[in-house]
Design brief:
The complex is a heterotrimer.
Chain A: H1 16-31, H2 35-66, H3 73-90, H4 92-96, H5 100-130, H6 137-159, E1 164-165, E2 175-178, E3 181-184, H7 185-207, H8 209-219, H9 221-226, H10 231-257, E4 259-260, H11 264-279, H12 284-304, H13 309-323
Helix pairs in contact in A: 1-12, 2-7, 2-8, 2-10, 2-11, 2-12, 3-5, 3-6, 3-10, 3-11, 5-10, 7-8, 11-12, 11-13, 12-13
Chain B: E1 14-25, E2 28-39, E3 43-48, H1 54-61, E4 67-74, E5 77-78, H2 84-89, E6 92-95, H3 107-114, H4 122-131, H5 133-137, H6 148-160, E7 166-170, H7 178-193, E8 197-201, H8 205-211, E9 214-219, E10 222-228, H9 229-234, H10 236-243
Chain C: H1 2-11, H2 20-34, H3 36-39, H4 43-69, H5 76-94, H6 98-123, H7 128-148, H8 150-153, E1 159-160, H9 185-208, H10 211-221, H11 223-228, H12 233-259, E2 261-262, H13 264-268, H14 270-283, H15 288-315, H16 322-325, H17 331-345, H18 349-356
Antiparallel strand pairs in C: 1-2
Classes of the chains: A mainly alpha, B alpha/beta, C mainly alpha.
Chain lengths: 334, 251, 359
């Protein structure tokens, strides 16, 4: 079907937040004494942002679609990371090999294990823990907090209470140097993976029928039902996918930190909440922009004003909420 | 439907039959025993004052609220406990009062979602564009940027993108400019020529009189009158008693 | 006969236990706490009793938010910490006098009010869920702040400080032992904590049974209707948030006084936040008596359940998995499960259960 005239712009994109991210990168330049340092910090910030995005995207989508705030999301992150680490530790030789292919033969199964384990846990959670409390935020928060506690404790039971060192594969450690500029390989990998996840999500959401349904469901779930689609199935699908992404983010984060512990999920949850509040609850694009902002700002201020680094994210959140009380990309429920 | 046995009160001429339907929303008892039948074919107007329960009635039929008592039959089948998507799949379309447009999606995407059995064919689309030319013009535009009237058109286009047995429309004329109402009336006249049955909630009596074949009037959660539209239109005393004012006085 | 009864009713602001078992349990807790130094002599049990008294206030003030207002805050430990640090810093820097104590308390109360108000202003306008996430972010920031500003807060180590001489353990108030117990400054400290806690609890009871408290309940039940009736829900929620913050601050003051120490682990830690949640929900949301039972049960369990679990765990050595599940460090696992079950099946906790079965 083709129509001859398009009068209204095809897709309205609010470019202000994009400009904000680029603006932060540019404004940071004069404050940082050397260009190579600035490049290193920018890459580090982007890498951190991408990792947070991978972990946070599922949570914001689940909230947008189902109006469910899942505090146990942090548990999916930890469980995914632990699952993957178990695989990684079992494949030490492949990890230490100089061959990229062998490294990947350990990494990919580990990442897959993280996704599957976290996804399965998500499926269980949706069915057993969250389903009885749809539509009740208070109980959702309480029940998912309880779930988080129980999951953390179970991690202790299964994997022990001590934190576990996580190896990075040979080809993913060390730095690449371009002239004066040194960039950690793992950060490049994190940036590429984050971009890939973002692109994949964008394509699914904008180019497939399921994506169309999800976008419509975020706006008005009731109307999606009235058009004849069972939104419950969509819910479950998105919940499991979001949990899987949390697991994936968990293993990437664990390898970045080179350690896992049971509290890890809850610790990053604070950053994740800041990111999805900044982005606008339910907005994937906002989550992406928010994650990059948080990552970049944390790295720049960490270098320029180390004392302020910890507060920079809170300050960012407060400023953005004063400017746009519903976040960068407010998601309007009809 | 001659084959169904349990439809004593649902004569084959009726497409939709409500019997003693009660609906509670929270602690409020909104529908208090609604009885009425929508004949097959043609357009039935559901009139009544604000708060009479018209919207709740449509939402209960659509399964968006649950009837706490009573039964609803569609084509002779009991649909009282049916889930909304299943009802939609049986050929009932719903245009809510707020139109339920997906504002972030384009007009095309809105229509694609409404067409469950695949992309709509050219003939059907040309027919729809004939009814509402604006839809063709803004086909790739974002629905949120449409004007109020255009959104209402899109909402109705979604309901007719594929042939449906029954279309429930909640206040299609709400907030529209007179010129657009005229366009809307023309479009509904065209719709009535298809074999679709329409149940329309209205407040605009001009609109109701121009289109209604049958009419039911609600008050305080009950049907207080049902009959032919032209009979009601001719009886000013009845209008005043049922609606608090005559149809003419509203002009 | 009726005079003392009505006086009691007045004291409880008309909010009676409404269950015989509950009344007995409450009286038992009251007597146990009031006579703790004489009933359970010994350092450990006196510590448990003081902690119970402090946590009753902390949990009751949290219930004002969770149970009465229907919003979840993760910043309650932050206010608890503000109380503790207010006293700790003032007594540490200005000396162990009553004046510096009063100044510390005053500054802590003002700071807590301002902060609670600012958080409410920023987040309560949008959606209650925003409030929850923002309190989490702010509280974790505060926690980091406290551990970073070590020149001021003592960092991870926290602050030890001295009390006025009258409250020191070496002080003897009477020459002879009373009921076989030496009445030391430590016991006087305990009674200071206990009486303040009792007073604060009665004040909170008054707040929730005032017209203000009833509006909070109306908002919790049906926000739109309360708004339609003309109540500015944002204002009521903000005030409730401030009152709860003040309650937590006072609890923090008492706890710091008792421990003669304040630090991240005793006041600010996220684990304490989770403990508070568990106590409120298990005891019973929306009723301050739930805080009494929840806090008592929890603190006692925290101190004694682990011993029991150790016994069980040791006894089951050799059986797969079970010893790990019953390891003393895993007691939170079981309370977590109890917590989830409570939310589903006993949304009003122990108190709701007791009231339902009253005769």
């Amino acid at each position: 079907m083709s129509a001859d005239t398009t009068v209204i712009a095809k897709q309205r994109i609010d470019w202000v937040p994009v400009a904000l991210v680029l603006g932060v990168i540019v404004i940071a330049l004069p404050f940082i004494p050397s260009l190579p340092t600035w490049v290193t910090l920018t890459v580090a910030g982007l890498a951190m942002g991408m990792m947070i995005f991978i972990m946070a995207s599922g949570l914001t989508l689940v909230f947008g679609l189902m109006d469910v705030m899942n505090f146990a999301h942090g548990a999916f992150i930890s469980v995914g990371a632990y699952g993957a680490v178990t695989v990684l530790l079992a494949m030490k030789p492949a990890m230490q090999s100089a061959s990229m292919l062998e490294n990947l033969s350990a990494m990919l199964p580990a990442m897959l294990a993280a996704i599957v384990l976290a996804g399965a846990l998500g499926w269980f959670f949706e069915r057993v823990v969250i389903r009885p409390v749809y539509g009740d935020h208070l109980k959702q928060i309480l029940v998912t907090m309880g779930g988080l506690i129980v999951c953390e404790q179970l991690i202790h039971v299964v994997w022990g209470a001590e934190s576990i060192a996580v190896p990075r594969p040979a080809n993913f450690s060390g730095a690449l140097t371009f002239g004066d500029v040194a960039v950690e390989r793992y950060r490049i990998f994190a940036v590429l993976l984050g971009l890939a996840v973002f692109l994949a999500m964008w394509l699914v959401l904008n180019r497939t029928r399921v994506g169309l349904l999800v976008r419509a469901g975020v706006e008005n779930p009731e109307m999606v039902e009235a058009l004849g689609y069972r939104i419950r199935r969509l819910f479950v699908g998105v919940f499991v996918a979001g949990s899987g992404l949390a697991g994936l983010g968990g293993v990437i984060w664990a390898m970045y930190q080179e350690a896992v512990n049971a509290q890890m999920g809850m610790q990053v949850m604070v950053l994740i909440f800041i990111v999805i509040i900044i982005g606008g609850l339910g907005s994937v694009g906002g989550c992406f922009a928010g994650a990059l902002l948080v990552g970049l700002l944390a790295n720049y201020t960490g270098y320029v004003l180390p004392k302020l680094a910890l507060g920079s994210n809170i300050l960012l959140m407060v400023l953005i909420l004063l400017w746009r009380p519903r976040g960068l990309y407010p998601v309007g429920k009809a | 439907m001659a084959d169904s046995r349990n439809d004593r009160a649902a004569p084959s001429a009726s497409m939709l039959v409500l019997e003693g339907v009660h609906t509670h929303i929270g602690q409020y008892h909104i529908l208090q025993g609604v009885d009425f039948a929508v004949p097959r074919g043609g357009l039935t107007m559901l009139l009544g004052r604000n708060g009479a329960g018209k919207t709740t009635c449509l939402r209960t039929i659509m399964g968006l609220w649950r009837a706490s008592r009573g039964s609803i039959h569609f084509n002779g089948k009991d649909i009282t406990r049916l889930q909304t998507p299943d009802l939609a799949r049986r050929g009932v379309a719903y245009v809510p009062e707020n139109m339920g447009i997906f504002a972030g999606l384009t007009v095309r995407e809105n229509m694609l979602l409404a067409a469950r059995s695949g992309p709509p064919d050219e003939v059907r689309l040309d027919w729809i564009f004939g009814l509402f030319p604006a839809m063709k013009k803004f086909w790739n535009g974002v629905a949120g940027n449409l004007s109020g009237g255009q959104k209402q058109m899109l909402a109705i286009c979604r309901a007719i993108v594929e042939p449906r047995a029954l279309i429930l429309v909640d206040e299609p004329s709400k907030g529209l400019a007179p010129a657009i109402i005229a366009n809307m009336i023309e479009a509904f006249r065209e719709l009535k020529r298809t074999d679709t049955t329409l149940l329309v909630v209205e407040q605009n009596f001009h609109f109701a009189r121009a289109l209604g074949d049958n009419v039911a009037v609600m008050d305080a959660g009950r049907i207080v009158h049902s009959g032919r539209m032209d009979a009601l239109a001719a009886d000013e005393a009845l209008q005043t008693r049922l609606l608090g004012l005559s149809l003419e006085s509203h002009q | 006969m009726s005079a003392p009864v009505s006086f009691l009713g007045e004291l409880l602001s008309g909010d009676r236990p409404r269950s015989r078992v509950l009344a007995v349990l409450l009286v038992a807790v009251l007597i146990a706490l009031a006579a703790a130094p004489f009933l359970f002599p010994g350092t450990r049990s006196l510590n448990v009793a003081a902690k119970v008294a402090v946590f009753i206030v902390l949990v009751a003030s949290y219930d004002l938010l969770l149970g009465y207002t229907g919003i979840v805050s993760f910043a309650h430990t932050m206010f608890f910490g503000i109380g503790g640090y207010g006293v700790g810093i003032a007594m540490g820097k200005l000396g162990a006098g009553w004046g510096s104590l009063a100044l510390g308390v005053a500054i802590a109360l003002v700071a807590a009010t301002v902060l609670a108000f600012a958080i409410g202003l920023l987040s309560l306008r949008v959606r209650a869920i925003f409030f929850t996430m923002i309190t989490l972010a702010v509280a974790s920031f505060f926690q980091i702040l406290a551990s970073q500003l070590s020149w001021f807060t003592g960092g991870e180590d926290g602050l030890n400080f001295k009390l006025p001489p009258m409250l020191l353990p070496s002080t003897r108030l009477f020459e002879a032992p009373l009921f076989g117990v030496d009445v030391t400054g430590r016991i006087l400290s305990y009674y200071l904590v206990f009486l303040c806690a009792l007073g604060l609890f009665l004040v909170l009871l008054r707040v929730v049974n005032s017209p203000f408290g009833r509006v909070l309940l109306a908002i919790r039940e049906n926000e739109f209707r309360a708004e339609a009736l003309g109540y500015r829900t944002v204002v009521y929620r903000s005030v409730a948030n401030c009152v709860a913050a003040l309650g937590a601050t006072c609890a923090g003051v008492l706890y710091a006084l008792w421990l003669r120490y304040t630090g991240p682990d005793t006041t600010l830690s996220f684990n304490i936040m989770i403990d508070i949640l568990l106590m409120v929900v298990i005891g019973g949301m929306g009723t301050l008596y739930g805080a009494v039972l929840g806090a008592t049960l929890f603190v006692v369990a925290q101190n004694y359940l682990q011993d029991l679990m150790k016994l069980a765990s040791d006894g089951l050595a050799g059986v797969p998995l079970l010893p790990a599940l019953l390891h003393p460090d895993r007691w939170l696992l079981w309370l977590g499960i109890l917590f989830i079950l409570c939310v589903y099946y006993f949304p009003n906790g122990i108190v709701g259960r007791l009231r339902k079965t009253r005769t």
